[in-house]
Design goal:
CATH class: Mainly Beta
Oligomer: single chain
Largest sheet: 22 strands, antiparallel, barrel
Structural class: mainly beta
Shape: globular
Radius of gyration: 25 Å
Mean pLDDT: 85
Number of helices: 6
Low-confidence stretches: 6-36, 556-568
Helix content: under 10%
CATH architecture: Beta Barrel
Strand content: over 45%
CATH superfamily: TonB-dependent receptor, beta-barrel domain
Distance between the termini: 32 Å
């Protein structure tokens, strides 16, 4: 019967299938059948499990709005609409994530993707989310109650897998128990062991081997006297023989006897979170979050350690009430973030005589209000955030405060379509400077001018259409298009003591800092998106296209004549991008689901960057013998055609050079999950 339904819609798609090379120019992406909210990007976590994501970064590779650069696990970065992840508000169970560590290294982001329950990527401004210069990524882990199905109250889930390209071995064990459906606890231990991977030309890419270890313990009390309480402890440890900076860390080139040696580096991120909700009435819906994030970097070969610690407290209440013909939600809250950095005294050998060690700290106190008013077919969103900042380094203490307003709306033109728009500002006092740089400050030096908070302004206008029963009964079609722009100014950057021809570096190579100041350069990312989806019974297909124009900042961030590498792509934003994604899937039987993805990236050829475009193909499948079966099997092939390519958001060793790390070649992945 299911296949008879599918046959009904084949004539609708047959012309597109016969003219596949033409329709590839249209827009593409896959979403769920449920209606999508405006200003947000939903990640299908069930499909992520099927594609066998090995890291958090794998979640964002198959959406046209997001890019992942760096290739190696220790250098990867996420870009949302061209804005790099350290400029986003990223949290895991409320704990702050995404801190920059050093020079060519990526952000410290790690969790077993199989444990994630919600990944909410939001592009619109929100006064309750501080430091969201380019948007936010809010992630929540599963509760024990999510594992307990079919009246089971306890159980164990085991998973193992293997990937061919990098000789990857992975395993995971989860044990859970639920008492009276209200109280639950579970623990998970998982790990990934990777050798160096090979690119599309079968070249071994050095410095890409790694080990990941994830540990999680979570207690959840749900719906007890109008209260929810969740307590989580989780840790991600990433280790391997990597390069600590140096140009080779971007290229994957390694000379064991030369100037680019590898060293043993262990990076550990530990999160402690307590989340509580009390909701006895429409006027009392109180959320309280207390969290601690601790990032530790151990350069075991060189016997140096660094530590960054962030403590956060956030309390907000949602008031829901009706006045006349309006429905209202008013959310009022306060937030406190306190960050401290310390580490080994680690000056460059050329700077030993002029440096001193000083810990770094910053504090953010905030008050905010975020409202929603509904008048018939019109929803109005508006809010205001006040931030008070303190930022203290070896150069002294700096203070600033900002007001960040936002306003937006969506209006239903018909029962199937709406228009939406939003505008908002955001600010932050620390972010893109790697925290290990801030421990090397030149003695008796102060800020050259008053330091101000970084600021952003975001704009978006869009149209959305959704309809059921368009071609056949119970089908679903969705269309969303928008234009957007993000502008970031007053970026806090650093200047080191190495100056050549009047141009100073920003701290590369461990050089000592002599100043921290607001850059006169502004970064802007603007563009448009077109996304469409069609679902019918056992079949789903989606297309998405995102075009981004980024303002390239042509500063010399290294201090070396002729290099002129842009710091913007490291910690601010990516280059121009035209990305097209097609996802399509079909449930062949009640037990077997197959999915295909195409990613097409247009090449770049301008005065700043020259890189070829590329097209990659991925196939995955999921097989569960029966609904009651304890076994689930997964198989996938990534980069099916063994394409030799590199992400456009991966840093090059030199400007316009071909020396940048290529992505993984063809990779076969298999895994199995057993539940009892």
């Amino acid at each position: 019967m299911k296949h008879k339904k599918f046959i009904k819609i084949i004539p609708l798609f047959l012309p597109a299938l016969l003219l596949g090379e033409v329709t590839i120019l249209d827009s593409i992406k896959i979403e769920e059948k449920t209606e999508k909210k405006t200003n947000s990007i939903e990640i299908d976590l069930e499909k992520i499990e099927q594609t066998q994501a090995n890291s958090l970064f794998d979640l964002f590779k198959k959406d046209s709005s997001t890019q992942v650069g760096g290739a190696a696990s220790n250098t990867q970065r996420i870009y949302l609409r061209g804005v790099e992840s350290s400029n986003l508000n990223i949290s895991l169970d409320g704990a702050k994530q995404g801190k920059n560590i050093f020079q060519h290294r990526g952000n410290e982001l790690g969790v077993n993707p199989d444990l994630l329950k919600v990944v909410d990527v939001k592009t619109s401004p929100d006064a309750s989310k501080g430091g969201a210069l380019g948007g936010s990524i809010q992630m929540s882990t599963k509760d024990a109650q999510d594992f307990a199905k079919n009246d089971k109250t306890k159980g164990v889930i085991l998973k193992t897998g293997y990937n061919t390209n990098s000789n990857t071995k992975l395993g995971s064990a989860t044990a859970y128990q639920v008492i009276d459906k209200n109280f639950g606890i579970y623990t998970n231990i998982s790990g990934v062991n990777n050798d160096n991977y090979k690119d599309g030309k079968n070249n071994e890419v050095y410095g890409t081997a790694y080990k990941d270890r994830d540990y999680l313990l979570k207690f959840s009390m749900l719906d007890v006297k109008e209260q929810d309480l969740k307590i989580t402890i989780n840790q991600n440890e990433n280790s391997g023989d990597f390069q600590w900076g140096r140009l080779g860390s971007d290229t994957g080139i390694h000379d064991p006897n030369g100037s680019n040696p590898l060293e043993k580096i262990i990076s550990t991120t530990t999160n402690y979170t307590i989340q509580h909700n009390y909701n006895p009435s429409n006027l009392i819906n109180l959320d309280s979050d207390l969290n601690l994030t601790k990032v530790e970097v151990d350069r075991k070969t060189n016997k140096k350690k660094y530590e960054n610690e962030n403590i956060g407290l956030k309390v907000q209440n949602h008031f829901d009430f009706d006045i006349s013909n309006t429905k209202n939600r008013v959310s009022i809250g306060t937030e406190l973030q306190n960050e401290d950095t310390k580490g080994s005294f680690d000056p460059n050998t050329l700077d030993v005589a002029i440096t001193k060690y000083a810990p770094t700290s910053s504090q953010n106190k905030a008050l905010f209000i975020q409202n929603q008013t509904t008048i018939n077919d019109l929803n109005i969103y508006y809010g205001l955030r006040f931030d008070d900042y303190e930022f203290e380094t070896g150069l002294g203490k700096a203070k600033d405060n900002t007001f960040s307003p936002n306003i937006g709306f969506d209006y239903a033109l018909t029962s199937n379509s709406l228009v939406y728009a939003n505008y908002g500002k955001s600010s932050r006092m620390s972010g893109i400077i790697p925290f290990t740089w801030l421990t090397n400050i030149k003695k008796d030096t102060t800020y050259s001018k008053d330091l101000e908070a970084e600021k952003s302004a975001r704009y978006e206008v869009g149209y959305k259409y959704t309809k059921q029963n368009t071609f056949v009964n119970d089908d679903y079609i969705g269309f969303d298009m928008n234009i957007f722009k993000t502008n970031i100014k007053d970026l806090i950057v650093s200047k080191d003591v190495r100056c050549v021809a009047g141009v100073c570096g920003s701290g590369e190579g461990g050089r000592t800092l002599q100043d921290i100041y607001n850059s006169s350069n502004e970064f802007e990312s603007k563009g448009f998106e077109i996304k469409t989806i069609y679902n019918y019974d056992i079949f789903t297909t989606s297309l998405s296209y995102t075009k981004i124009d980024a303002s390239d900042i042509t500063d010399n961030s290294t201090g070396y004549i002729g290099v002129n590498e842009q710091s913007s792509i490291r910690r601010i934003g990516a280059y121009d991008s035209k990305k097209f994604v097609w996802n399509t899937g079909i449930e062949l039987t009640n037990s077997l689901f197959v999915d295909y993805s195409l990613n097409a990236i247009k090449g770049i050829d301008n005065e700043f960057l020259k890189r070829a475009g590329y097209v990659t193909h991925d196939v995955s499948m999921k097989y569960k013998p029966s609904i009651s079966s304890s076994w689930t099997y997964f198989a996938a092939v990534n980069n099916l055609t063994d394409k030799y390519y590199g992400s456009h958001s991966t840093i090059a060793a030199t400007n316009n050079a071909d020396s940048y790390r290529r992505e993984m070649g063809r990779d076969f992945r298999i895994s199995a999950k057993y539940e009892f």
